[in-house]
Design goal:
This protein is an alpha/beta fold. Helices cover 52% and strands 12% of the residues. Helix 11 packs antiparallel against helix 12. About 7% of the residues have low confidence.
Length: 317
């Protein structure tokens, strides 16, 4: 089996024991026996994992679903290669829906990456991309939700773009998995180099993010009910995040990114689906906790803004 599939015997045993990717028949001596269907299945699983999908997410898919995954991943790869092949002739033209990322790209962009259009208003953005036809679309979202996949489809059709990147802070695993079928997902924050690497302009490299739930007590869920108002708008945070080239202290940028991330988690916890009363209480507590933490960091950011004399740079247009 190892020779036929290209997998090591250790990997085959791990996939079988831990993920039930295949179930071998055993003879009276306990030796494993596999059939042709098992060979096909492990070969497909190997191909999909080599393209970046973790085995835990695909181990239970049937052969047809694995083939669909493989075709879709290869389609994304061909699209990225096509874009990269076109780069010697002109820069990659991207359109960004969002507030925070466009201002960062305006500072970091170079000859390989051209910010064609950026807007936080979806209606204006749709009209712009329909007319300008960007090479790739980047969606900056606080949360990935059940509507994200449909939004990706709509913008692809509207702009005629084959590549869509979604830059997000939070989301439920089910919504993220659904959106990943339509677009490439990146966890915020990202830089211009991250975008270029993902689009194939650099050798691609990906890093996983591990989530570890914190222990809680029922008594703790009664705290943090108050939600303080937000002190800075998203556009103000975006401007603060790109002030580092103008001043030596990078605290405004780091603090602005912390406030934005906490604000995004506030939105996510508020939108999170409530399965029962306990679940609703937990998310209400998390919402209040994130708001309190955001307000605390905002206090620090406000102090830095005052000391550095940055108040005039925060005037909303």
């Amino acid at each position: 089996m190892a020779k036929l599939t290209g997998l090591s015997t250790h990997t085959i045993r791990i996939w079988e024991r831990r993920y039930s990717a295949v179930v071998a028949q055993r003879d009276e001596r306990g030796r494993r026996h596999y059939g042709s269907d098992d060979v096909e299945r492990l070969t497909l699983l190997k191909a999909v994992t080599e393209r970046g999908r973790p085995i835990r997410l695909i181990a239970n898919l049937d052969a047809a679903e694995l083939m669909n995954q493989l075709e879709r991943l290869d389609g994304h790869a061909r699209a990225r290669q096509s874009l990269a092949a076109d780069l010697p002739l002109r820069p990659l033209r991207i359109a960004v829906l969002g507030e925070f990322l466009p201002q960062r790209l305006a500072v970091e962009a170079d000859a390989d990456l051209k910010l064609l259009v950026a807007d936080a208003d979806q209606s204006r953005f749709r009209a712009d991309v329909k007319e300008l036809k960007p090479d790739a679309i980047v969606l900056e979202l606080a949360t990935v939700d059940s509507a994200t996949a449909a939004l990706v489809d709509e913008l692809k059709k509207c702009a005629g773009a084959g590549v869509v990147l979604v830059v997000y802070s939070y989301g439920r695993e089910a919504d993220i998995s659904l959106a990943r079928k339509k677009a490439t997902l990146l966890r915020s924050p990202v830089s211009a180099e991250d975008l270029k690497r993902t689009l194939g302009l650099f050798e691609r490299g990906e890093a996983g993010v591990a989530d570890s739930p914190e222990p809680r007590t029922d008594a703790a869920l009664t705290a943090f009910r108050e939600v303080p108002p937000r002190r800075f708008s998203r556009s103000q945070l975006a401007r603060l995040a790109v002030l580092s080239p103008e001043i030596q202290c990078e605290c405004p940028r780091h603090l602005a990114e912390l406030v934005r991330s906490l604000s995004d988690f506030e939105t996510y916890s508020q939108q999170c689906e409530d399965r029962n009363e306990e679940d609703a209480a937990l998310h209400a507590w998390l919402h209040g906790l994130a708001a309190q933490a955001r307000a605390l960091v905002e206090t620090g950011l406000g102090r830095v803004v005052e000391v550095e004399g940055l108040e005039k740079k925060l005037d909303d247009e």
